[in-house]
């Protein structure tokens, strides 16, 4: 197993850096490359919390993977996204596309969590969410979803125009317990809690990833469509 650089070198967050390195190693997606890119984007700032999200998609005979890494410091949110693509049919020639974006915590406008629970009629406080979507907005960009409008009459065939919803988001990650395990959902929730605490000036969040340091932001918006599932 390859050894990666420490995150936040020179900062008092070595434990959190090791936790992040372990998470990247566990993902198995070019861990040394991803670690070096993230470490460079942090620019010496120590991580407070992180979220590593790996996705795999199948396109006919090809398998496409991409990873999104969110790292929070006390000042920045660092978002790193890496895709891989094969250049030949045998898959021997590969290329990695990398983007990073650094967002000052003060610029984050909203942190939205959407949950899905199964069998809500039998809900107990100990029941975990089966799925969680984390949406973070900072640039003022908006997503519009439109559809034909309808009235209450099922027999009406008149044209009622369109209706829709406008949602503000720069990045949205969907974490499913079925695909990634209950711990992945819990980790996403903990990261959102840490982000809210830093964003609102509530101080260091009290969760397993908390620690001294700053909050880096996410890199260039190249390939942002990959952030969503």
Question: Any overview of this molecule?
Answer:
The protein has helices spanning 14-27, 31-42, 177-180, 182-199; strands spanning 49-59, 62-72, 76-86, 94-104, 110-116, 131-137, 142-148, 162-168, 171-176. The chain has 229 residues and is of the alpha+beta class. The strands form 3 sheets. Strands 1-2-3-4 form a 4-stranded antiparallel β-sheet. A 3-stranded antiparallel β-sheet has the order 5-6-9. It has a two-stranded antiparallel sheet with strand order 7-8. Helix 1 runs antiparallel to helix 2. The radius of gyration is 20 Å and the shape is globular. The model is unreliable at 203-229 (pLDDT under 50).
Helix-strand blueprint:
Layout: H1 14-27, H2 31-42, E1 49-59, E2 62-72, E3 76-86, E4 94-104, E5 110-116, E6 131-137, E7 142-148, E8 162-168, E9 171-176, H3 177-180, H4 182-199
Antiparallel strand pairs: 1-2, 2-3, 3-4, 5-6, 6-9, 7-8
Helix pairs in contact: 1-2
User: Percent of residues in helical segments?
Assistant: 10-25%
Rg over C-alpha atoms, rounded to the nearest angstrom? 20 Å
Arithmetic mean pLDDT = 78
What structural class results from the helix and strand content?
alpha+beta
Tell me, what's the shape? globular
Total tally of structural domains: 1
Largest sheet: 4 strands, antiparallel
**Helix count?**
4
Low-confidence sequence ranges: 203-229
Q: Looking across the biggest beta sheet, what order are the strands in?
A: 1-2-3-4
Number of strands: 9
Query: CA-to-CA gap between the ends?
Result: 30 Å
The amount of beta strand, in percent, is 25-35%
* Helix/strand order: HHEEEEEEEEEHH
